[in-house]
Specification:
This protein has a single domain, classed as Rossmann fold (3-Layer(aba) Sandwich), CATH 3.40.50.970. 42% of the residues lie in helices and 10% in strands. The chain has eleven helices and seven strands. The strands form two sheets. A five-stranded parallel sheet has the order 1-2-3-7-6, with helices on both faces. Strands 4-5 form a two-stranded antiparallel ribbon. Helix 1 crosses helix 2.
Length: 310
């Protein structure tokens, strides 16, 4: 099990580090919201899911896209704005989608995929499927009215759904306690009668608790379940750089999170040869994905008039 977790964690981290390396060249045509530091949430959750389960993400969705099995070549091509991208080069980093692997889409608008997830879960219930829907959103998403509407609907209809709040304490540059009177989002879910739990930044604990919820839903226990996963982004809100000079947070605040790096933790649980093999395979895959993006064509001009809502 530890080898699977490490492969997924290391893969996400290295993909984003390569994005950081390439970003200044302007080959990447999309703004990027990096998941570095937050990988444990997506990996812990997605390792508890089946191929036919589905996830809905926020604009910071690289980690959940990759953890759920999204096509890496298509993801990088999408960042490059190429026709071979997962959305034909039209959507960029904030709108990753790979329906074949259960990644049902992300959105640049805060909170907008939460009701989509609830609607999908309602459809699954009506069809008597035992698949599970997971909605990922940030602590800022919990400020949106649609969060409460969707949570209420999911609780009322007892949907096979798991809400995952990736609480990194900041909505862009504003700390949670400057936006919310108390720092416990899970308590809000309990008001709706939803089982809710806070989890520290621990990939194995996230997997254990979410896995138990998934098992309960498949056994017919009424949903939804709610998890507030405490985490921390290492880089700026949008872009590849550090931002401590802006003054809204400090390195001292970030240090404990960085010392608790789950990528390094899982690396330490593997034999050296096993770890090196995983890293070598991942590096080759990343190199191939960026080469694929480089070599792919840009979309034809006619694509401006396709896939449009009329």
């Amino acid at each position: 099990m530890h080898d699977r977790f490490y492969r997924s964690l290391y893969r996400i981290r290295r993909v984003e580090e390569e994005i950081i390396r390439v970003y200044p060249t302007d080959k990447i045509k999309s703004p990027v919201h990096l998941s570095i530091g937050q990988e444990a949430v997506s990996v812990g959750v997605c390792e508890a899911l089946r191929a036919d389960d589905v996830v809905f993400g926020s604009y910071r969705s690289h980690a959940v896209y990759l953890a759920k099995g999204g096509d890496l070549k298509k993801m990088i091509a999408e960042l490059y704005g190429k026709a071979t991208g997962c959305a034909k080069g039209k959507a960029g980093s904030m709108h990753l989608v790979d329906a074949a692997h259960g990644v049902m889409g992300a959105s640049a608008v805060v909170g907008t995929t939460i009701p989509h997830a609830a609607g999908y879960a309602y459809a699954l219930k009506l069809r008597r499927k035992d698949s599970v829907v997971v909605s990922f959103f940030g602590d800022g998403g919990a400020d949106e009215g649609v969060f409460y509407e969707s949570l209420n609907f999911a609780a009322l209809k007892k949907l096979p759904m798991i809400f995952i709040c990736e609480n990194n304490s900041y909505a862009i540059h504003t700390h949670q306690l400057c936006r919310q009177p108390t720092a416990n989002i899970a308590e809000r879910a309990r008001v709706f009668g939803v089982p809710a739990e806070r989890i520290e930044d621990d990939v194995l604990r996230v997997h254990e608790r979410v896995g138990a919820a998934v098992k309960a839903l498949r056994a017919g226990e009424p949903g939804p379940f709610f998890f507030e996963c405490l985490t921390y982004r290492w880089k700026e809100h949008v872009g590849p750089n550090d931002d401590f000079h802006l003054g809204y947070r400090t390195r001292e605040e970030a240090d404990p999170w960085m010392k608790n790096d789950q990528v390094k933790r899982l690396a330490g649980l593997l034999e050296a040869d096993q770890r090196r093999r995983i890293e070598s395979e991942v590096e080759a895959e990343i190199q191939a994905a960026f080469a694929f993006a480089e070599e792919s064509p840009f979309p034809d001009g006619s694509e401006l008039f396709t896939d449009m809502f009329k």
